[in-house]
């Protein structure tokens, strides 16, 4: 993008209906992991295992959002952010994942929702952002088909208690990541590995996504119901046929595996043959049960991936060429800064005629921020956000049905296996004192959103 395009970026260019927000997730911010009847989640247990998380960090306190939510929601208001996406912790609501309900958990989320509404902030609620109740993992977790029933009951509980006030729902956060990292690579909770775990987890997550959608639609016919997907624009390393074929397989794995069954297209097994093995877990009627007509699809994009053929990588025959090796600008996650990726991803998903509406439910970057005199001059993040929002506008102006954009994330928080090292927030957190400082990126977003108010 030209410098001038960025500088001229105005909220008004997106139209009055466009939604602007900020996203978070329960385990990454709440802390209070064992108070007032909360059960353990797989992340509580995984983080206690040696060698799993950088510096042995964990989410026991995190940003203490459980106790500080009023202050943080007031900050959202001060930044003029109208939409706030957060998730509920299943094990705070149902300590064993099924059966008895924890009244204090219900009250807590009610207070959060009410406080948003009192401050004219719209709550957008994600049902599942990776923190499965540990009691369910002991029964097989996502590899156990019974999860469809457990998930359906949990969805029903949330719809019943929060549906009078929450109008925007997301069933799941990034199923490709929690199944891939949690059940194939073992680098996220619950730390399981191999195809024997990955394949059933994929299929049951797909079934739960659609089932969750159906429960919400039936109980809350007025609600706007979506679900979110991780997606990275994929390009081949070279024009060789081998690399092109590898890129196609990686694209099927990273971008198509979960959305296509939901849209009624089935798993993309023609382009990623290993997915044929999913048949073992399919029962009669599943093809239909996997389908749900979501009101919107949440896309979460951070970067692009460059892929080359790799004979030695089992199942997929492809590997990623890291940004560091390619000597391109990158974030502290090691991800390439490549704003056009978000444009390409919107175009890609927009091409599915079954998708009614696209919301960017996450986009943001981690950089090594420094506090100087109570300020954080995170120019790289300001530029990252401006460049990406400009690319969203480009897609919108092309006629794509993109209708909202949420920054990841409000405050620096627990970044899964990376612990607290990568800082993604618009607001800096000192994890010793819990002091918040609005970064320059937060101030930029505030000024951008303030226009016309
Ligand atoms: C997403 C995830 C978030 C956050 C973000 C940055 O994959 O949904 O929880 O961690 O990435 O890595």
What are the main properties of this structure?
453 residues, alpha/beta, TIM Barrel, eight-stranded parallel β-barrel, three-stranded mixed β-sheet, binds beta-D-galactopyranose
CATH level 1 class label: Alpha Beta
**What is the domain tally?**
1
Estimate the mean pLDDT confidence: 97
Ions, cofactors, ligands: which are bound?
beta-D-galactopyranose
Bin the helical content. Answer: 25-40%
State the oligomer.
Answer: single chain
Strand runs, count: 15
Which class of secondary structure composition applies to the elements? alpha/beta
Number of helices: 17
Rg, please?
21 Å
Terminal Cα span: 27 Å
How much of the sequence is in beta strands? 15-25%
Q: Judging from the principal axes of the Cα atoms, what is the shape?
A: globular
Low-confidence runs of at least 5 consecutive residues: none
In the sheet with the most strands, the strands line up as 1-2-3-4-5-7-10-13
Describe this structure as you would to a colleague.
38% of the residues lie in helices and 16% in strands. The protein has helices at residues 3-7, 26-29, 42-46, 65-78, 90-93, 103-118, 134-137, 147-162, 175-183, 195-219, 241-256, 259-262, 286-289, 323-326, 340-350, 379-397, 440-450, and strands at 19-23, 83-87, 122-128, 168-173, 224-230, 233-236, 296-300, 304-309, 318-320, 358-362, 371-372, 375-376, 402-408, 427-430, 435-438. Strands 1-2-3-4-5-7-10-13 form an eight-stranded parallel β-barrel, surrounded by five helices. A three-stranded mixed sheet has the order 6-8-9. Strands 11-12 form a two-stranded antiparallel sheet. Helix 4 (65-78) runs parallel beside helix 6. The site of beta-D-galactopyranose has 12 residues, from loops.
């Amino acid at each position: 993008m030209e410098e001038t395009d960025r500088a001229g970026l105005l909220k008004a260019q997106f139209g009055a209906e466009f939604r602007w927000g900020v996203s978070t997730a329960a385990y990454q911010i709440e802390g209070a992991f064992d108070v007032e009847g909360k059960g353990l989640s797989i992340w509580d247990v995984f983080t206690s295992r040696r060698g799993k998380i950088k510096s042995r960090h964990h989410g026991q306190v995190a940003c203490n959002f459980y106790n500080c939510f009023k202050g943080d929601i007031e900050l959202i208001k001060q930044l003029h952010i109208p939409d706030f996406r957060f998730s509920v912790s299943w094990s705070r609501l149902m300590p064993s994942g099924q059966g008895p309900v924890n009244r204090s958990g219900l009250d807590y989320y009610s207070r959060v929702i009410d406080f948003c509404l009192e401050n004219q902030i719209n709550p957008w609620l994600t049902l599942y952002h990776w923190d499965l109740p540990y009691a369910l993992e002991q029964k097989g977790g996502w590899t156990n088909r019974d999860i469809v029933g457990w998930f359906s009951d949990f969805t029903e509980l949330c719809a019943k208690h929060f549906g009078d006030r929450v109008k925007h729902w997301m069933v799941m956060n990034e199923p490709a990541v929690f199944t891939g990292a949690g059940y194939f690579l073992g680098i996220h909770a619950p730390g399981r590995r191999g195809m024997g775990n990955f394949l059933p987890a994929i299929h049951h997550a797909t079934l739960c996504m659609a089932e969750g959608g159906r429960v919400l639609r039936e109980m809350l016919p007025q609600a706007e119901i979506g679900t979110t997907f991780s997606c990275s624009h994929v390009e081949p390393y070279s024009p060789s046929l081998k690399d092109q074929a590898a890129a196609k397989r990686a694209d099927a794995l990273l971008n198509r595996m979960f959305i296509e069954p939901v849209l009624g297209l089935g798993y993309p097994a023609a382009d990623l043959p290993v997915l044929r093995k999913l048949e073992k877990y399919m029962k009669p009627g599943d093809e239909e049960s996997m389908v749900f007509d979501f009101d919107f699809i949440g896309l979460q994009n951070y970067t692009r991936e460059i892929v080359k053929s790799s004979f030695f990588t089992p199942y997929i025959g492809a590997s990623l060429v890291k940004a560091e090796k390619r000597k391109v600008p990158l974030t502290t996650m090691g991800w390439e800064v490549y704003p056009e990726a978000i444009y390409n991803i919107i175009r890609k998903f927009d091409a599915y005629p079954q998708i009614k509406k696209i919301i960017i439910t996450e986009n943001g970057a981690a950089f090594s921020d420094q506090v100087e005199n109570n300020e954080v001059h995170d120019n790289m993040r300001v530029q990252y956000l401006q460049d990406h929002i400009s690319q969203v506008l480009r897609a919108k102006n092309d006629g794509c049905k993109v209708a909202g954009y949420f920054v990841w994330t409000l405050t620096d928080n627990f970044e899964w296996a990376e612990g607290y090292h990568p800082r993604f927030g618009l607001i800096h957190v000192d994890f010793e004192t819990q002091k918040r400082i609005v970064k320059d990126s937060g101030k930029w977003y505030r000024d951008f959103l303030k226009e016309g108010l």
